[in-house]
């Protein structure tokens, strides 16, 4: 990845190296093996990578990773209690601009995020990632181990950052001047936890597709799967084959495509779409002419998917699955009718506290009620008090694709509104430290039909190096330059077409006169 153009912008606030201090490079890097003394920590290996290469990975998630910028690699292992710990890596670029970055995880993992380490060092951040207290995408180590649960909830990221900052200080001979966090999905949840529970860790946080209110998200996912027929979907009368969801999308577009002012195959704000599933019900003519249509049982399943899930007392457990989020390619993740592995893991190791295989046919309201009660050291992540983070001057950018089939997009708005009501701050006031951008038609963290889904959030190469088009540059400019982003400009897969992503509560509407989407 060629990144020279980013230099100008990121150099903002760059502190020039004091010649009296140590310089990065081979000798000083390798010396860390013996000179680093960090609490509860063993240095596993230190290596120096002067040019782009491929390195072997720690853990079970991936075997090799590509690297781009010259850097020093520190691999370490830290105990967090007598029954828990994590492995982590700090990647320290030769050309360091004084910034620290911590990155999060995803799903139930368990995986050092090598692509994010590479992105961070490429952008001249000293970057740290850990396995979040366990290896792999599973909850098996959560069983009867509240310490491992704490690491997954918030502690591993907190400690990896504290240690990473010490490594930075020692290697470069001076402390970082600003610290950042970047993550998506569970990584977005972890970024939210950092703001709520460890408000002093970061000056700026970018949190995407946050898997907030986590246990209720699992209830929603499990309920959808059961509605479609889990654990034996193919023999269930409500089963909807993967190939049939395209007809649902077609009907959604027939009902709602025009709502954003243009018929273009996407629904920019699915919350405005009151999708009426009845129109998909088979008529005798449909049946006679073999027109794709849905049985009453299938319509019932669709209604579970496209409406929120409620607790018995009528409070909302989780927002609905958004119309158009059933679009390929991630549809199989949520709507195949298979009971989600992460929900059965959660039932076994967190809720029932048993390693016995989970029988998903038993999942009903009683199991949802049990799930509702198990939090594991704040793991749910759904509270609105960000006073401390705001008071220390922290800045928070959240984003969420409106066609995310993994984490229902409505949760991003619920969180925004929860913070707003908890802190008694209207959006105009929240703007001073917390901004949410809904990304039309984007799937989970990136991707999505006709979505302008590239804005620097992922470890993808991007030549769009402005604060408007690159969300990491946007947070740096907000924190260090005082320039808050009003829109995030995304670029489509063609590398050319752009779209303004709007700051919630504004929504994206087609303006025929200007022939572009505008925020209203
Ligand atoms: C962005 O990149 C262009 C070259 O592609 C360069 O001319 C410009 O200075 C860069 N801008 C910033 C702010 O880094
Ligand atoms: C490393 O880069 C090569 C060449 O671009 C690519 O084929 C491979 O998938 C990359 N590996 C990883 C783990 O990203
Ligand atoms: C080191 O571990 C002990 C117990 O395992 C813990 O009490 C202490 O807080 C840890 N120190 C740090 C810096 O995390
Ligand atoms: C399993 O353990 C959690 C505490 O981690 C507890 O809240 C829950 O009630 C336990 N479940 C059962 C079935 O005992």
UniProtKB/TrEMBL annotation:
One of its GO terms (biological process) is xylan catabolic process. Keywords: Calcium, Carbohydrate metabolism, Disulfide bond, Hydrolase, Metal-binding, Polysaccharide degradation, Serine esterase, Signal, Xylan degradation. It catalyses: feruloyl-polysaccharide + H2O = ferulate + polysaccharide. It holds the Pfam family Tannase. The keyword Calcium applies. It is an enzyme of class 3 (hydrolase). It comes from the Eukaryota. It comes from Roridomyces roridus. Its EC number is 3.1.1.-. Belongs to the tannase family. InterPro entries: AB_hydrolase_fold, Tannase/feruloyl_esterase. GO terms for molecular function: feruloyl esterase activity; metal ion binding. PANTHER family: FERULOYL ESTERASE B-RELATED (PTHR33938:SF15). This is Carboxylic ester hydrolase.
